[in-house]
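Q: What does the predicted 3D structure of Aminopeptidase N look like?
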Amino acid sequence: MPVGTPVTIYRKDYIAPGFWVDTVEMGFDLHPQRTHVATRITMRRNHDSAEKDLVLFGEDIKLLQLRMNGVNLKKSAYTLSKERLVISNAPDQVTLEIETAIAADKNTTMSGLYVSNGNFFTQCEAEGFRKITYFPDRPDVMASYTVMLRGDKKLYPVLLSNGNLVEQGDLGDGRHYAKWEDPFKKPSYLFALVAGKLVCQEEKYKLKSGRKVLLQVWVEEGNLDKTQHAMDSLKNSIRWDEERFGLELDLDRFMIVATSDFNMGAMENKGLNIFNTKYVLANSRVATDTDYAGIESVVGHEYFHNWTGNRVTCRDWFQLSLKEGLTVFRDQEFSGDLVGNETGRAVKRIEDVRVLRQLQFPEDAGPMAHPVRPDSFVEINNFYTVTVYEKGSEVVRMYYTLLGHDGFRKGMDLYFQRHDGQAVTCDDFRAAMADANGRDLKQFERWYSQAGTPRVKAQANYDAAAKTYTLTLSQTCPKTAGQVKKLPFHIPVALGLIDAEGNDVALQLQGDSASSTTKVLELKEAQQSFVFANIDREVTPSILRNFSAPVILEFEYSDEQLAHLLAHDNDPFCRWEAGQRLAMRRLLKLVNSVQQGESLRLDDLFINALRKTLNDQSLDPAFRELVLTLPSEIMIAEEMAIADPQSIHAARQFVRATLAQHLKADLLQAYQDNLTPGKYSPDALSAGKRALKNCALAYLVEWPDTATYALAHTQYQEAENMTDRIAALNAMLHCSSALDKAHSKTRKQVLAHFYQEFESEALVIDKWFTLQATAPTADVEQVRVLMQHKAFSMSNPNRARSLIFAFCNANPARFHAADGSGYSLWADCVVALNKLNPQVAARLARSMDRWTKYPKANQALMKAALQKVAATKNLSKDVLEVITKALA
Ligand code: PHE
Ligand code: ZN
């Protein structure tokens, strides 16, 4: 194999570790240039394993000492390669003493031990622990950890690790120490330490059992006015897991630490969660309603991992969705439950489905498509995907739909009863669900093994004489990389039938006495018919209620049927979906008209259907806002054989402007009706009102007159919270009229003002970059100018995402400029990031996933850009895997 050829790792090659680890003791002498780590590991042979050698992994660290059972090991006693240290013929009982040195200050990858703003952090998932010491760094090796931290008292007054603080004191020489003990066995990827200048908000919290625990949120000095929401979210999470799943916090202390340098959202290290500041810091001045909701769900997510991920973990990384799919499901349910009413829950559901369609459906149709439980990977970091997370959550939700609320709980209880303290597989989870409910879920396994989004086609036939309604469902699944033939899935299809008055009809399957207004049909064959008896009037089917399965549903609805569903469906998801279908149909036609140079028009049925929803006071503002929001440009592109970003943009903007023109009075009214004066509160009702109001504002400026533009400007100036402020700015910068000269001076002024006002708030400056990168006026040249701005930095992931990712992923009409300048920018940035942070680089590399979907001329330019990156020297395996798959 030539040097540099990436190695593919296969799920089928799993072998149990040759040695188990019982205890790990670590001593850290913290120093940015050279942290010294002394580790003592007690191990014992696993006689059941086919692996006879003692295998340790290590990466980018200096090995200073290696002792086995008290004896220094000579170089000849082991083999050391770039990634492994292998000891052959080790005895059955082994105590290893290892000393390593780490240059944390040079570590720009944000994996392993690194320095951020002078403070130390670790990130060990998935394979970062091996950058700290040599270790069997695999999730099925679970051990008890004791950690001693030593460091300069002034530079690192705070010393944190997993579990309980058992000792601390002074070392005399200007340094001090803290000793931490984690009472629970854990895999190495859950190890963490934090050291530095930090302050915390803390609180004693009483669990349901009466036990008191200490909760802390640690941040940099100056940010204590932004921790309350995270603390509230943490307390809500603790209570929710007790109530909904009977799961109690098992530690006496639970800590959250925020850092501005983080590759992902957050990390569930045992008792010491480390978070991206984006998912901790909030007050009304700097954070939007969306930010507040994001914090709540990520705090919940990481907390819920304590049971689903930490107490029960993954046997190997192919099983990642075991913890991630399940924990996303749990955080989605948490947020839904917390709203406290049915519409709020439905709004949350719709938002989650939107994310799935916007991000996961394209992934599942592209070159990186993989099953929820992948069969192989080159770099595991590339598989922290929307498929593993969001589709994984949909798979867990299907158990919930099939087994019911109580049945699902029974399955969870059995899962913990069987597997607490173990490292297990997706099959173990499925078995617990099946066994607890006496159900056969064998076919359900295909949701884990087959990639691609299934298509379900529905056909209906009403026999008025026999009073029967027959629904025929058929399923197919497109081929994906390495998977040509697909077998039928076990698909729960929740169905309702609605009569002409909009009422749900009682559903009774022929030969079945049970009757309900929503029926979960189980589609298991390639094609199946379901016959309903006693249907005495014409009905409209409401199919896939609450989005009961992650599939694409095809049914030939008439416009009138869709308008009827939009006006009446009792299932909020299908009601919203009807509006989206009406919109998508028109958008696709209009894209075609744009391409043909035909004149564009929008019909009254659609305009009036939206008007009706907009003015329907019985509907939650949040729900109305969702209906008023058109399918995104990305979603439209996915519906086309060859996507044409500029025509898509033009068609969508035409619909927005036309709606604004026809609904002007209604929109102004909605704007006035949904003001939220008084003290800011991020609760769902207030947030929903702001969402509708700001949606109305964004429409109003699409068909602007001086008054509507002034409305936006005034809102910007007078806004008392970030939600309203940024929404106003967004409306001013993103409307089509921003393309002509009118108001360009005002726009410049507000942008400059915004920067000055929030210069010291990094998360707000991220928003400032994103606003500009996603504006219709943005172009590559402007992005390159912004990259020279003193506030820009490629090495800070949040900042890189705020500008580069935003432009490449969220401004398709501009990114896909005909001259290929967007692609050159992309290539330059992937190469630059590759040197600094391969994980982040590989994420950006994915912006080109769908390159074969664009017009021929674009394809050629995109391919050239991909090839240019592929030809770069010293490409990380992260980037190489993504690029290779895109070009395959
Ligand atoms: N396990 C983290 C989560 O889902 C995500 C993560 C993965 C964070 C890898 C950092 C590194 O909550
Ligand atoms: Zn997670």
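A (community wiki): The structure tokens above were generated from the sequence. The mean pLDDT is 97. The pocket of phenylalanine (ligand 1) is lined by residues 123, 125-126, 263-264, 266-268, 301-302, 324, 384 (CB under 6 Å).
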